[in-house]
């Protein structure tokens, strides 16, 4: 018997008072379709970890569903991570997204500064200090992490996170389903059996799509980029086109066996909810 599909939404800590004021309503609108959980990111180098905590509390207050903070190890210490884990546990958090985090611009290698250098070390630490209390999500990169030296090295990094105790994984955004299916084939050959949920980014504008893909090393297929360029002066047509592209991607992934979808909402409810409706996803009873 197959497991039920998992659907989740990602938020980031608001950066302005206006964005902070809008966030509760955005959360309520997204929570209405009853996702399994909300994840909450933070800034490069852990700069917004306090904002992550406050946003987690906002989700708990307004969503009525599970909240999962991103926890990174860049520039951090075991003592600092212990404090964060204890604070999240006291708030009722039962899921952590464990990441290395963005390196400082001056970093000379992929090794993070601080007492943890890679995400697998953070996963091991969480398991050692909190046992099975937290469900641990890690990142997966179907198209390779932009700072990896090659696909094989990147896959070995992912395998170490799984061996350290990760329960499941969320992928970086992508627009090529074959990249995900190839990654899953490699996992199958390596004996990796944890659920790996595709990360989905709605397309709402040309510049944003280019920026997000450039920032994480994801491929924006040429045909999509050309159509976005052609439609950039017609917002309605562009959004309709983007909805069609991402809807077909999601359908292909789910039909191909993906265990669910993780939506990068960028703190906007409308694009994700429109995609949800287009996919005809049901609300759990």
Q: What does this entry show, briefly?
A:
The protein is of the alpha/beta class. The chain is 47% helix and 15% strand. An 8-stranded parallel β-barrel has the order 1-2-3-4-5-6-7-8, surrounded by 5 helices.
Description:
By secondary structure, the chain is α/β, with parallel strands linked by helices. It has one domain (6-279): TIM Barrel. It has helices at residues 17-31, 49-62, 78-90, 119-130, 151-164, 177-189, 206-216, 222-231, 235-255, 269-279; strands at residues 6-11, 37-40, 66-72, 95-99, 135-140, 168-173, 196-200, 260-264. The protein has an 8-stranded parallel beta barrel, surrounded by 5 helices. Helix 6 links the parallel strand 6 and strand 7 (196-200).
The tally of helices reads 10
Separation of the first and last Cα atoms: 19 Å
Helix-strand pattern: EHEHEHEHEHEHEHHHEH
Uncertain stretches of 5 or more adjacent residues: none
Decide which structural class fits the backbone.
alpha/beta
Under CATH, the topology is which?
Answer: TIM Barrel
Task: Please state the second-level CATH architecture.
Answer: Alpha-Beta Barrel
Number of strands: 8
- Overall shape: globular
Number of domains: 1
Spatial order of strands in the largest sheet:
1-2-3-4-5-6-7-8
Largest beta-sheet details? 8 strands, parallel, barrel
Beta-strand residue fraction: 15-25%
| Helix-residue proportion | 40-55%
Calculate Rg over CA atoms: 18 Å
At the first level of CATH, the class is Alpha Beta
């Amino acid at each position: 018997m197959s497991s039920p599909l998992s659907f989740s939404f990602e938020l980031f800590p608001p950066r302005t008072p206006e964005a902070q004021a809008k966030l509760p309503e955005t959360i309520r609108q997204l929570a209405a379709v009853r996702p399994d959980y909300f994840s909450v990111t933070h800034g490069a180098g852990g700069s917004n970890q306090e904002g992550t905590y406050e946003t987690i509390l906002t989700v708990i207050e307004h969503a009525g569903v599970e909240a999962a903070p991103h926890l990174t190890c860049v520039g951090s210490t075991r003592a600092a991570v212990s404090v964060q884990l204890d604070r999240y546990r006291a708030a009722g958090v039962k899921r952590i997204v464990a990441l290395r985090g963005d390196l400082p611009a001056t970093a000379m290698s992929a090794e993070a500064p601080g007492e943890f250098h890679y995400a697998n070390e953070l996963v091991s630490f969480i398991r050692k200090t909190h046992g099975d209390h937290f469900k641990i999500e890690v990142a997966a990169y179907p198209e390779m992490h932009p700072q990896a030296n090659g696909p094989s090295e990147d896959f070995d990094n992912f395998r170490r996170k799984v061996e350290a105790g990760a329960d499941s994984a969320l992928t970086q955004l992508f627009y090529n389903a074959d990249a995900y299916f190839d990654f899953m084939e490699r996992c199958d050959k390596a004996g990796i059996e944890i659920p790996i949920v595709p990360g989905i980014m709605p397309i709402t504008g040309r510049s944003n799509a280019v920026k997000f893909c450039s920032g994480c090393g994801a491929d924006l297929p040429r045909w999509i980029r050309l159509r976005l360029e052609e439609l950039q002066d017609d917002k309605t047509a562009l959004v309709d086109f983007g909805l069609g592209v991402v809807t077909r991607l999601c359908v292909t992934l789910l039909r191909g066996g993906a265990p669910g979808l993780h939506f990068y909402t960028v703190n906007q409810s409308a694009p994700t909810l429109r995609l949800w409706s287009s996919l005809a996803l049901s609300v759990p009873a």
